[in-house]
């Protein structure tokens, strides 16, 4: 009997030691991949850096810079909203809304929209930062609002799409989708395609809605729930949706990446790739990040894989954003990584600061704007090497003639 208990004790001890890493490196395997030294073959210049507000205290807020052609706008978790000059970074105005913010800003029609952590949509004037109205939609929002024509459109984490009147905040229409038993924390940001707003939901559906009436124009199942458990059946569309021409690109968790026709919702092609951050697209390629941090590029026309890069495994990379001849990705240690859009080879790496970059970088008018989790905003541009021009030797030319 004593021998039996000794065996049980030894087995228990072995399990404890194993969990401590003495019988395997399981903990080490979960660490972010260590960065290796690279040669910067592309010159990146920081134009300016400014501060909009304080540190983000909770994860997965939908805050990132936005531009309207005249200014760059940004909002921080602690309620600060600011407008910056795109070239110099000079602050035109800064407003303290005195609430925690979770999403925004969205810009259009001369107004700026943000959403507070407790579900208030707040609309401001873009020229002065003056608040015009705020109204509660009784739900948390983690995605960028849309300002289009006479509407401010927000998507909540409980699977609602709400359109408010731009002038006074009165509800114009609301669309509600079924909510699964278990969902990821987050929501994709809707986008505008012509007179429609395209939105992805936690039930795996991608829906086109008429902006004026709220009527559903088409409804497509992007990510079909499958599996026995609620965890296996997660099919959220929580990441970014991309639009190029008349084609829409989206990704679902535990599901697939697909291209759909904007006018009908017909699936043009799909690939079995799970991504929580969604997709970005250029005229030639579609980019995404797998749930483990591996970057993937697909050919936009047919979804054929172009390249993969695993340099940022478990480094919580942002979505790869097309920028000049590269895609740029932020990570949990405040680095910006630039990869060739042709083959995925790293061409540059710079560090914005010590805090994580959890919001996707934004490109406006050939400049890159990045917001880190400490409330800093910075602008970058690519420096092109120009061939040296030499003045002609006039005297020599005269002698030869």
Structure report:
The chain is mainly beta and 401 residues long. The chain has a domain of 259 residues: YVTN repeat-like/Quinoprotein amine dehydrogenase (Methylamine Dehydrogenase, Chain H, 7 Propeller), CATH 2.130.10. It is 7% helix and 41% strand. It has 3 helices and 33 strands. The strands form 8 sheets. Strands 2-7-8-9-10 form a 5-stranded mixed sheet, with no helix packed on it. The N terminus is likely disordered.
Quick overview of this protein structure:
The chain is mainly beta. Helices cover 7% and strands 41% of the residues.
Rg calculated over all Cα atoms: 24 Å
Structural class: mainly beta
Named CATH topology of the domain at 62-320: Methylamine Dehydrogenase, Chain H
Distance between the termini: 113 Å
- How would you write the strand order of the largest sheet? 2-7-8-9-10
The geometry reads as: globular
Q: Provide the residue-averaged pLDDT.
A: 85
Q: Counting H and I runs of at least 4 residues, what is the number of helices?
A: 3
CATH class of the domain at 62-320: Mainly Beta
For this structure, what is the CATH homologous superfamily of the domain at 62-320? YVTN repeat-like/Quinoprotein amine dehydrogenase
Percentage of residues in helical conformation: under 10%
């Amino acid at each position: 009997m004593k021998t039996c208990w000794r065996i049980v004790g030894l087995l228990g001890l072995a399990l404890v030691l194993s969990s401590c890493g003495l019988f395997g490196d399981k903990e080490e395997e979960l660490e972010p991949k260590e960065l290796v030294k690279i040669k910067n073959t592309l010159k990146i210049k920081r134009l300016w850096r400014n501060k909009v507000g304080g540190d983000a205290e909770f994860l997965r807020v939908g805050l990132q810079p936005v531009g309207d052609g005249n200014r760059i706008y940004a909002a921080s978790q602690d309620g600060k909203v600011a407008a910056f000059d795109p070239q110099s970074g000079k602050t035109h105005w800064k407003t303290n809304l005195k609430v925690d913010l979770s999403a925004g800003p969205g810009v259009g029609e001369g107004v700026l929209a943000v959403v507070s952590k407790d579900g208030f949509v707040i609309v401001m004037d873009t020229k002065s930062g003056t608040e015009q109205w705020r109204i509660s939609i009784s739900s948390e929002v983690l995605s960028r609002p849309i300002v289009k024509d006479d509407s401010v459109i927000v998507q909540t984490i409980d699977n609602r799409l709400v359109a408010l009147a731009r002038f006074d905040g009165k509800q114009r229409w609301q669309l509600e989708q079924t909510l699964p038993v278990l969902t990821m924390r987050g929501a994709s940001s809707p986008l505008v395609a012509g007179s429609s707003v395209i939105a992805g939901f936690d039930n795996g559906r991608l829906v086109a809605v008429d902006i004026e009436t709220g009527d559903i124009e088409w409804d497509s199942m992007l990510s079909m729930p499958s599996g026995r458990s609620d965890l296996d059946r997660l099919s959220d569309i929580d990441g970014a949706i991309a639009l190029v021409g008349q084609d829409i690109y989206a990704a679902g968790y535990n599901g697939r990446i697909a291209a759909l026709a904007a006018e009908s919702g017909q699936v043009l092609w799909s690939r079995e790739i799970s991504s929580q951050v969604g997709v970005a697209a250029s005229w030639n390629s579609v980019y995404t990040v797998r749930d483990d941090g591996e970057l993937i590029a697909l050919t936009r026309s047919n979804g054929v894989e172009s390249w993969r890069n695993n340099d940022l495994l478990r480094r919580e990379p942002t979505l790869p954003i097309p920028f000049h001849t590269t895609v740029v990705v932020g990570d949990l240690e405040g680095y910006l990584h630039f990869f060739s859009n042709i083959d995925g080879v790293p061409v540059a790496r710079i560090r914005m600061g010590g805090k994580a970059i959890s919001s996707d970088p934004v490109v406006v008018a050939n400049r890159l704007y990045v917001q880190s989790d400490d409330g800093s905003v910075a602008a970058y541009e690519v420096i092109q090497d120009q061939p040296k021009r030499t003045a002609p030797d006039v005297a020599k030319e005269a002698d030869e003639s």
